[in-house]
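Forwarding the complex inputs:
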Amino acid sequence: MSKVRLNIDGKGVEAEKGMTILEAARNAGIDIPTLCYHEKLAPYGACRFCTVEISRNGKGKDGKTRLVTACVYNVEDGLIVKTNSPKVVKIRKMLLELMLASAPVLSELAKEYGIEKSRFKAEVTQCILCGLCVRYCAEVKGADAITFVGRGTKRRVAFIDEVVSTGVCMDCRECFSVCPTGKIPRETDGAFFEGLTVQDVLARTRGR
Amino acid sequence: MARLRSATDLGKKRQSILSRRDPSKPCVTICSGTGCHALRSDQVAEAFSREISSNGLRAKVDIRRTGCHGFCERGPIVVIFPEETCYLGIKPEDVPEIVSTTLVKKQLVERLLYKDAEGKKVALEGEIPFYKHQRRMVFGSNRLIDPKSIDDYIALGGYSALAKALFEMSPEEVLQTVKQANLRGRGGGGFPAGVKWETTRNAPGDIKYVIVNADEGDPGAFMDRSLLEGNPHSVIEGLIIGAYAIGSREGYVYVRQEYPLAVSNLTVALKQAHGYGLLGKNILGSGFDFDVIIHRGAGAFVSGESSALMTAIEGIVGEPRPKYIRTAVSGIREKPSNLNNVETWANIPLIIDKGAGWFTSIGTEGSKGTKIFSLVGKVNNTGLVEVPMGMTLREIIYDIGGGIRQGKKFKAVQTGGPSGGCLPESLLDLPVDFDALTEAGSMMGSGGMIVMDEDNCMVDVARYFTEFLADESCGKCIPCRAGTEQMVTILNRICDGEGESGDIELLEEISEVVQDASLCALGQTAPNPVLSTIKYFRDEYVAHIEQKRCPAKVCKALISYYIDPEKCTACGICLRNCPVEAISGGKNLVHVIDQDKCTKCNTCFEVCPTRFDAVVKISGEPVPAAVPSGTEVVRKKGKQE
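Prediction (whole assembly, two chains):
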């Protein structure tokens, strides 16, 4: 494997070619927050929470920087990555405020970004549609018992009765532990994790 | 059908088709595109067939059912060759007169000709202002051929560009020609087609795909549909040439299930091309193999996005994926896959046939060739128009479109489909060009062009398009799904008279993140309608929020209907037509609308005779109090007539 050298938040980082920015950053001890990422799953790029600002040798095309998701963007030689630039923080705050409207359970995480209350109203589902349960069930367990239904604002996560009724998912419950908001365990088992901490939310998306 | 085994065979075939055709023989062509079909052009065609037979003219007159001519507003369209006499709005009952007058006596049926604003009649199709200012190099053959006849296409020189590519050019030369032509994708992004082809050609792997994107889903847009319906072989020929240049042996046409005529004409065309050896193994004896599969889409707007389209072809739900590795490198089943829009492919045979120099002589510095637009909305002449890049919006709307209906005032034109922007009157002289439109906060998109007049509320327009996009968002990424949802909520409250100060800034704040952080182009461009209307029509937002007034008098919550007692003649028409019995009054008694009962359905406003104009819409001011019961002004019916 050939090595590439890049700069993340002012720190020189060496990474393997083919690695994502997220992997390179975490290897170097730099944290980029994620919500739909999981080490055991293929990158999905849906929550956009790991958005970072990149440029090459100080400037991008037309001297402009680009906003990319760290979980899917591969490292390149000479890449300069800012994981906490004003643009990035602005995006994360807006994403959290949007999510908070339908998942108030994320209030602790939101507070960490200075958001006390969302300016938006939405149906409270406590689900951010990160798809971790759906993808974990499909990619790790091969059971395909959970799926997305509906499109756009009507998108929901649902267990597929035909699959569940075969007994395939009775004792697994591994989706419980990947759900960052605790929706899945609450609705299936009544075991809702009250008072989620920031660490709870982030830890569960990392499969550790 | 005999297979053509060489370029010479194709040439001979063309000669033999032409030798059986007499250009001076009268031919009645009837537009059978979707617009004319909806206006029962099939019955017109049957009437011609019957009438020509009963006049004993069967051997002397040909009948051809062609693709869309573009002037859909005035269909069904009938053009009689060789003179090219054009009759508009033809009904089956007009046919006997056309046959006896034009075909038998060689005279014009004056009443069926196009009449311009001054009442001057125009007999020839090409002289009608709607057509006269166009340059129809891609769309022009539609009116000359029966889309179900490959012979019609070959007679016009069809597939000769393919023969030229296969026998006179290397794949590399074909690629270079397309690159030099600087043909930019007609589907939305305007990415240079030649560069995309080169990426796929150079990507590692033996299996490569070429794909036609016919997932046109913009409200009001139908140019790709009409091209695929009216001239399917031009798209197929372009695709085969592209496959040859790229090194692909398998292609797809991703076409909406809702386009049944396109699917049917394309199916026939592929079968005929196979029969002639223009598809399949050893095309024209060149040793090049290529085949095409039709994939019918289930009709999700987002499936027009390249990665979503490709997952849909794989049989998976059409949702975009991050494209830091382009689909040109990793597309269908992770193989290099080159996707171009219908119109882009249809340009290819022309470029190969006439050369890159010819193509680049048309258009602007950065945008070459022509573009087909769906010109719709409040213009006099609606339909499909093809113009050279660089023509101004004013020329398209006024010279071709004939200006605004009913002499109303132009307000805005939305280009580029639902995620395009609304441009105001001050930008009417903007040349239509990929970069100029983007610069102005709109985009070329796939070529939608919706014209709006003084009666359109720009906040309501922004709400309509944002609602469409929120509805069509796949829901995968948060900014697009939740961001557009909240934008719709805010726009709704502004239109409902519940807008709050700070709402404009909040819309801008959400828009910025939706643009910057969304996964695919649907989300990245979704804020365009809101941002462009805030930029150019901010005063309308302010009026809604601060004065609770809708300047165009569209938003129901902000308007009231009122009957002017000075103008009301107590004719009773509004009273009888009101669906909720909100209008009181009687014979010789001025009518009054009960504001509590009124549902603002607009019926009274529409039915009140224009010579009275007694029903008025009010916004931002109180409704004048009705005169007390018993003291209503008494009017004699017809007094003011």
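Chain B has a mean pLDDT of 93.
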